[in-house]
């Protein structure tokens, strides 16, 4: 929002749209320039003092100059020392301290393996391999895939393992997590996926529910869905190569459920959740497709 002065009417207006003219200066005139300009002549015989002849200590004193007594000078130096001593050395980060902190931070990141091969050769390989076996067991439980023979017309997607250690607020290690992800960046639109839209809940709906629950003394519960994307049913035939750590003989696996990393996995999960909520009599609102009521 801009407030501008109309030079023709002398009124102030408010507008959102303005355009600056950098070549026009309405208050600038040649008359004003002539009045502010004074001509002077520099004499060629003017003596210009050199550095050796100039001494700032010999300059005449002005009424604004104040000469400090020895006591004032001593107090001034003491105040400067007090300012310096008030700084806590522990709060001063030197280059060496910054390097140590950066080195510690990098060391903590490197501890997580970046691939299945690194996990098998990791100092905590026993824990990582146990986590991988547990994740593969969950996939078999949810029947995420089925075996398929290799066909030249099939273009399987590749997968990768993502490893992460879960740390609590006190910095203690609480859990080893391993997740199999499809390299979704290799998917081609029209071949491996089409529509990938999935709605997200609105923050205004959450505030409204919180307000109503507080006003009517309703109980609020929250939940976390385990193996979230393993509940999404695919509507398109997709294949993956046998992931590392999988002991099945088939080299090609046909996906029955969605996996992390697929571009359409959020949509498949929303469809599964929407169908489950419909079965218990809940329908989405028109203003927020993620807010249901009965």
Automatic annotation (TrEMBL):
Pfam families: RVT_2. InterPro entries: RVT_2. Residues 142-292 form the Reverse transcriptase Ty1/copia-type domain. Residues 51-88 are annotated as: Disordered. It comes from the Eukaryota. This is Reverse transcriptase Ty1/copia-type domain-containing protein. It comes from Austropuccinia psidii MF-1.
């Amino acid at each position: 929002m801009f407030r501008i002065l109309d030079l023709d009417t002398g009124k102030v207006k408010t507008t959102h749209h303005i355009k600056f003219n950098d070549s026009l200066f309405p208050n600038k005139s040649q008359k004003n320039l002539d009045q502010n300009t004074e001509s002077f002549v520099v004499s060629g015989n003017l003596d210009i003092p050199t550095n050796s002849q100039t001494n700032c200590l010999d300059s005449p004193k002005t009424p604004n100059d104040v000469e400090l007594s020895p006591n004032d000078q001593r107090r001034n130096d003491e105040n400067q020392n007090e300012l310096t001593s008030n700084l806590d050395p522990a709060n001063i980060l030197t280059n060496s301290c910054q390097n140590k902190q950066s080195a510690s931070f990098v060391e903590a990141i490197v501890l997580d393996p970046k691939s299945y091969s690194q996990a098998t050769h990791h100092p905590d390989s026993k824990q990582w391999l146990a986590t991988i076996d547990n994740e593969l067991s969950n996939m078999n439980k949810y029947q995420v895939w089925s075996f398929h023979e290799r066909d030249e017309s099939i273009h399987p997607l590749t997968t990768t393992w993502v490893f992460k250690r879960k740390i609590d607020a006190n910095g203690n290690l609480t859990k080893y997590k391993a997740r199999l992800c499809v390299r979704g960046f290799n998917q081609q639109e029209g071949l491996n996926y089409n529509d990938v839209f999935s709605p997200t809940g609105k923050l205004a709906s959450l505030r409204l529910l919180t307000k109503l629950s507080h006003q009517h003394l309703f109980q609020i519960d929250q939940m976390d869905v385990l193996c979230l994307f393993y509940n999404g049913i695919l509507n398109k035939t997709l294949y993956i190569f046998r992931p590392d750590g999988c002991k099945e003989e088939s080299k090609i696996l046909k996906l029955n459920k969605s996996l992390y990393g697929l571009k359409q996995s959020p949509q498949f999960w929303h469809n599964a959740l929407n169908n489950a909520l419909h079965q218990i009599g809940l329908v989405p609102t028109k203003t927020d497709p993620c807010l249901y009521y009965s």
